[in-house]
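task queued by scheduler; priority normal; single chain, no ligands, no partner chains; default sampling; output format set to structure tokens
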Amino acid sequence: MNYQEAVEYLYTQAPLFQNVGQEAYKEGLYNTISIDRHLGCPHKLYKTIHVAGTNGKGSVSHTIAAILQASGLKTGLYTSPHLTDFRERIRVNGKPVSPDFVVRFIERNRDFLEPLHPSFFEVTTAMAFSWFAEQEVDVAVIETGLGGRLDCTNIIRPVLSIITNIGFDHMQFLGGTLAGIAFEKAGIIKKNVPVVIGEHNDETRPVFERKAEEVKTKIVFAQDNCKIISHKYINPSKVVYETTEYPALESGLAGLCQEKNANTILNAIDLLRRKRFVIQEQAIRKGFRDVCRMTGLRGRWQLVSRKPDIICDTGHNSHGLKYIARHLEELSSRPGAGQLRIILGMVNDKDVTQVLALMPKNASYYFTQASVKRAIDANTLKEMACEAGLKGGVYRSVAQAVSTAQREAAPEDLIFVGGSTFVVADLLSMPDFFIHS
């Protein structure tokens, strides 16, 4: 078995949620606990930090990992989904898991795994925990896949838990109210493990407070302890924050939503320091500034080409896309700004109508569909968009939409590509496409 065969085995033996959706989801921890015991409970060999939330958990996880790495700690990072290569999910000090290990893990464990019929995420989580143990990491930042309470990452006992925010997403699994979704996310809160809540509202705060009281742990609401004073965009992919502790804190993540993520991270760093993590100001600055280079993070307000600027973002629900829409409207209203062009595709289990209602009306749209089964047909998306007052053409692939938008755009125009993680993945997979560093 070679690496490509191993990955194909994972996709076929354990269906991938990002491709097929609900039928790939398995609720509960039975398989995870069984696999973990079979492997010798590798996650107990290093410290962990657990990150959940509707949006922002990827940005928060990567930035904290970069800060810890800059502090001299050998740092594991487990996130999902991947964009172009399975190995993106599992990293140590920014380097993806070895292809040989992926093969070796499957060959050694397939006889045990197959009778369990585990999900793709259950197998991948076990693989990540094992890789981090083999690499003897000091700490691993672990991002939940979906929810928290029954997410298969929730067997860890972290030194810190973080819940970025609560919004409407995956309601078929997590519930149809914000309080219900918050209850599922709050499942990662554990006894005597402090927790940072990035954003809250009147509906979600009591849920978190009850859980923290139940397990007798410290809870910090970052929203009540705002460390960001102001921000200034240097260019489409760089922002500088004035904070209460670090003047001119430069960040390589410049989306409008990132201010809230930055505040969550700074509150989390305070708690990690109290846990005797030695984290100097220099490491914080380096982690914020160089997060993409250090961890391989892509697709978060990423500038991929110039003249015209092409920006992509993996935001994919109304909670996340409202910030994107606002940022796009700000950029397109600046003096000298050209035409705003939006390449949009979505998947069939998202709040499509709410998203379309948020999107800028003054843009030219290129409706498309990503190369996954869950993608909404581009014609259907266009029909729904027309009802929301959005106008544009239909393109059968992301590549066709991008090349058409580039051809039609003037140098001063702005092209945005998004609506789905998989649209961004298709963009970043385009052959011979110049990716801005």
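post-processing summary
- Residues 16-25 have pLDDT under 50 and may be disordered.
- Residues 228 and 259 are 7 Å apart (CA to CA).
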